Amino acid sequence: MKKNPSLIKFSDTDSTTIPHYYDYAVGIDKVKELFIEKLGFDLKLYEAEEGLEEIDDTIEQILSRNDTDIEILASVYDAVGTSAITYNDTDKYMIKPSLTNNIFYFPNYEVAIVKMPLYQSHMEYVRDFIFARNDEALLSFLNFIIEKQREFMLDGINVLTDTEDGLERSREEITYQIKREDILLEEDVKTDIYRSIDEFFLKGGAFFKTYNIPYKRGILLYGSPGNGKTTLVKSIAGSVAAPVVYWQITEYTSSYSIKEVFSTVTKMAPMILMIEDIDSMPEEARSVFLNTLDGATSKEGIFLIGTTNYPEKIDPALINRAGRFDRAYEIKQPDETLRNEYLHKKGLTQFLDVATLAQLAKQTKGLSIAQLNELYMSIALQWHYEKQVDVDKIVKDLQENQRRTMRQDWETEEYAGRLGF
Predict the structure, then answer these.
(1) Which of 230, 231, 281, 374 gets the highest tally of CB atoms within 10 A of its CB?
(2) Helix (H, G, I), strand (E, B), or coil: what is residue 336?
(3) 270 prior amide bond cis, ω within 30
(4) pLDDT digits over 296-324, tens only?
(5) What is the number of other CB atoms lying within 10 angstroms of the CB of residue 144?
(6) 313 with 283: CB under 8 angstroms?
(7) Degrees (nearest 5) of the Cα angle 230, 233, 236?
(8) Which residues contact 372 (CB under 8 A, 6 or more apart)?
(9) CA proximity to 293, closest of 250, 323, 267
(10) Which parts of 252-392 are beta strand (E)?
(11) What is the CA radius of gyration of the chain?
(12) 3-state DSSP call for residue 380?
């Protein structure tokens, strides 16, 4: 492509002839001088029409792994920090290169990324600049970033949270693999869900091609809290070789964040997008969300899993309309058989005999999986200190607590009908 001349050249200006809003050109000019000095050639400056958040996240991962794909050529300003203090649950405090003010260079692609701090109109902000040897080099680099991001995403569950300052990205490691056989569900529901998951990610979706089925799927999991919806999703996440993104909807979810989320996940397809408590989607964003689901390509290669504790808040059109959620599965409270199985797996036989345990499974009718877990905790604590267990009292206390909680919900929750997806 023929290079067009620039009407305004920085070398021909000074502070008396150019408005202050072009002051960042001082930094750009110095960066380009560095390229010629260190690389022996100049790099072309590109304008990013969309944010570089995905590139930022990938660069952070590359830096944390001491990858040789990246170099730091220099910093822009000497009075702005070049290292950042971070904290995580594993390593406590860490020092790492700051994404801001450093000039990152990818020698294999002849591409440089700079997040430059700017001070204009009495305000401080950061602007992203991307440089490349040519268009071909930049396109190869962007494809590399997508491949790297997908590779990093396989390491855990990737969390996208809508905040007041935009979409926040983080990653949660799967420290404990939940086995499929440990998921307590009705057998037909469990089989149906896992079959659809396996066929979606098996051999590049060959099943969908064989039977001429659109390569996208959405399921909605609903039921009262504490019965394993989140546990089921974690089990799925740890058992498929595909990126898993957990999108946390908040009061800050907007049309912009919806677009950003689907832009991210579409690039990572085939993948799983998990949306917990989907009924909490702000009303002003719902039409945009539905239009996105209805888009021809927005869900291609995406296995969408939504959960809700309040299915009565969701309009049936969300479930019944093709292309949104194809199936809805009720995650019920465990029946006596499942309760008995769960209590055995928890190891209650170390405190109770088999007959008492069987009776306990009958007594705990109406308790959720989470409450059964608390039951185990309470029995273990009492046994640890007293070497005996008052099972009847513990069960009675848990059931009374559940009744009080439900009464409080009925008294304070004001349903104005369906909120209307």
Answers:
(1) 281
(2) helix
(3) yes
(4) 555 789 999 998 887 777 766 666 565 67
(5) 16
(6) no
(7) 155
(8) 334, 339, 342, 343, 346, 364
(9) 323
(10) 271-275, 302-308, 327-330
(11) 27
(12) helix
The pTM for the full model equals: 0.78
Name beta bridge partners: 130: 46, 113
Helix (H) or strand (E) holding 372, with range, is helix 369-386
Q: Dump the DSSP string for 73-125.
A: EEES-TTS-SEEEEEETTTEEEEEE-SBSEEEEETTTTEEEEEEEEEETTEEE
**Alpha carbons 227 and 12: distance in angstroms, whole number:** 69
Distances (CA, A) of 308 to 5, 127, 230, 353, 372: 57, 39, 10, 37, 21
The per-residue pLDDT for 315 is 63
Distance CA 314, CA 294 (A): 17
Strands 327-330 and 217-222: parallel
For residue 300, the model assigns a pLDDT of: 85
Residue that is written with structure tokens 């888009």 in the block: 295
Residue 76: count of CB within 10 angstroms of its CB: 21
Q: What is the pLDDT of residue 413?
A: 46
Q: How far, in Å, CA of 394 to CA of 17, rounded?
A: 81
pLDDT digits (tens, 9 = 90+) for 391-407: 899 988 888 877 776 65
How far, CA to CA in Å, does 152 sit from each of 60, 178, 243, 416?
Answer: 11, 21, 9, 44
Q: Of 259, 260, 262, give the one whose Cα is nearest residue 273.
A: 262
CA-angle at 216, arms to 215 and 221, nearest 5°: 150
Measured over the CA atoms of residue 12, residue 17, residue 18 and residue 20, the dihedral's sign is positive
Task: Give the CA count within 13 Å in the CB-facing half-sphere of 9.
Answer: 5
Distance CA 7, CA 19 (A): 15
Give the least confident one: 30-44, 208-222, 227-241: 227-241
Which amino acid type is present at position 333? Answer: Q
Nearest by Cα to 235 from 187, 273, 194: 194
Share of the chain above pLDDT 90, in %: 28
pLDDT band, residue 153 (cuts 50/70/90) = confident
